[in-house]
Amino acid sequence: MPFLNTNSLASLVESAVSTHSSHLGRAAHAQIIKTLDAPLPSFLSNHLVNMYSKLDLPNSALLVLSLTPTRSVVTWTSLIAGSVQNGHFAPALLHFANMLRECIQPNDFTFPCAFKASASLLFPVTGKQVHAIAVKAGQIRDVFVGCGCFDMYCKTGLWDDASQVFDEIPQRNIVMWNAYMSNAVLGGRPRHAIVKFMDFLGVGGKPDSITFCAFLNACSDMWVLELGRQLHGFVIRYGFGNDVSVMNGLIDFYGKCRDVASSAIVFDRISRRNDVSWCSMMAVYMQNDEEEKACEVFLQVRKVGLEPNDFMVSTVLSACAGLSGFELGRSVHALAVRICVEGNIFVGSALVDMYGKCGIINDAERIFEEMTNRNSVTWNAMISGYAHQGHADMALALFEDMRSDNGEITPNYVTLVCLLSACSRAGAVQKGIDIFESMRKRFGIEPGPEHYACVVDLLGRAGLVEHAYEFVKKMPFQPTISVWGALLGACRMYRKPELGKIAADNLFKLDPNDSGNHVVLSNMFAAAGRWEEATLVRKEMKEVGIKKGTGYSWITVKNAVHVFHAKDTSHERNSEIQGMLAKLRKEMEEAGYNPDTNFALFDLEEEEKISEVWYHSEKIALAFGLIAIPPGVPIRITKNLRICGDCHSAIKFISGIVGREIIVRDNNRFHRFKDGLCSCRDYW
DNA sequence: TTAGGGTTAG
């Protein structure tokens, strides 16, 4: 080793920080000890404290600090900044306190760290103390300190204090204005952000890309498509048409305002897309229920030879979960392992969710067990995986584990929804009611519309339909779509057209464009032999211009997706499919199966109705699956609408005849058929 | 010191 002077030793330490290599850092430290006698020059000690702290080796950092006889503001600030950077906010504040105890004055680098730590811990009281110290030290007028202070008040919800700080800062730079706008959006005051933007222009300010992004966020929160469009023009005029950040912001904005086409146009016109552009486009498709398109974007990423990142992987996994796209999901899992992102908490949670929704509960469990970091989303995903399978006992057991895990992660709003839906799917009525009634007291969670909807579903599914209606009437707020939807579902299941009409009428008011509700109601009347009323509902539907969407079912075989619509004969293996359908029909008839023709269009003759239900897309997909998928492998079908009642009972029956596991995911839930049974009890 | 994208329910 050549002789190293103190400057080159310092740069060795710096390179350990910049490459984030603790190995290099330790080696540099060893070299320093070898080369120099103690005590080290203070600037080198500072470098070491900074290095260990940034490398998230807090004990080593503290050790060096305690061995440094002359600790300066730089030494302490290095320690504090590293702690904050690595998310250790409470220790950062402790170090800050110790520094003051040593009578060392914090500087313009220290205060922002202390503010950030207070903000992250949501400690407004501590934040106020730091503020007082900064005022006393005469530092508050510094833009960095002032901005940190302002940000702290925003993040801890003290908006008035924040505004006061903003007004008192003498020289506001663009960062300060941007901070105001983005915090206003984050704090649910998008209108404030827009007003501030106007003020900013009024004082001759020149917006930058962050300003535009903040403005766009405000627009998407307020759903003001027109205002955002105007800003789009403004962006171009200001010469930001090639700024990838602003373009990404526009993709996101249009997507949130449900103008997917504009998002796609912006995306297509970006000459140099970055990771965020791709991710944003995927997210837009996801937010607008176009999972297939999201998958396509992901495949395009791979096609152009880009390495996907953790964001893309978690998004595409959730698309797979929505589509029950188990094959793609599995291959994305393999990819995640290869690019080393499977340890990421978002990716892990998305994997648990994907496997759970695809019904591969063992793999979901395995991923869950192997995850070293779990957050409430991870737990909820696993609980809902059990719920989807109808394993209320497992869901409840996991919930208990969650509560006793380490106290860090507590059940939240969604956890309770998952649990209640697990009870409802498993028919655990009393258990569900107990949980619902105790949620405020035991878990401190105020029951919301989703929880009420679960209880309605719970009661309704157990046949207590009138009870369910009484429960709805006693709700402390207006019942939502999901509440009436759950009641309508129960009425359909137990054939209660009168009550069903009440539920449906409410749904028509709240959700006039959903054709599904009309179809359910008319089928319900048809099932009760009340053809006139059934026809009337269909007529109304036509008059108002509501169309029943086309039903599609799809199935993946060897990475190719095969899509079928009703009466589809276009598949290249159509003759085999028809042969299989005929064979199934014969075997089922011999085994005594009666098709339920209430689900066919009711103005047909009985004979026609039978053939009508026989050629529903899910049955065709199933026939194809039986031909193309080797025995022993489960057949997975996805349908974009609700599975029809006859198909549900037919598939149940078929699963017994052919001795195969059949999994159908429709737009409502998940059905696993095996040995003539289905995981969801009494669906119709 | 400001910002752009992700995971859980129904």
UniProtKB/TrEMBL annotation:
Per the UniProt record, one Pfam family is PPR_3
Q: Does the keyword NAD apply?
A: no
Q: Which UniProt keywords apply?
A: Repeat
**What's the protein here called?**
DYW domain containing protein
Which Gene3D superfamilies does this one have?
Tetratricopeptide repeat domain
Q: Which PANTHER family match?
A: PENTATRICOPEPTIDE REPEAT-CONTAINING PROTEIN
The Swiss-Prot or TrEMBL record describes its family as follows:
Belongs to the PPR family. PCMP-H subfamily.
- Signal sequence segment: none
Q: Where are the PPR repeats?
A: 72-106, 274-308, 375-409
Source organism, top-level taxon: Eukaryota
Record-linked InterPro entries: DYW_dom, E_motif, PPR_At4g14850-like_plant, PPR_rpt, TPR-like_helical_dom_sf
Q: What is the lineage of its organism?
A: Eukaryota, Viridiplantae, Streptophyta, Embryophyta, Tracheophyta
Q: Which organism is it from?
A: Parasponia andersonii (Sponia andersonii)
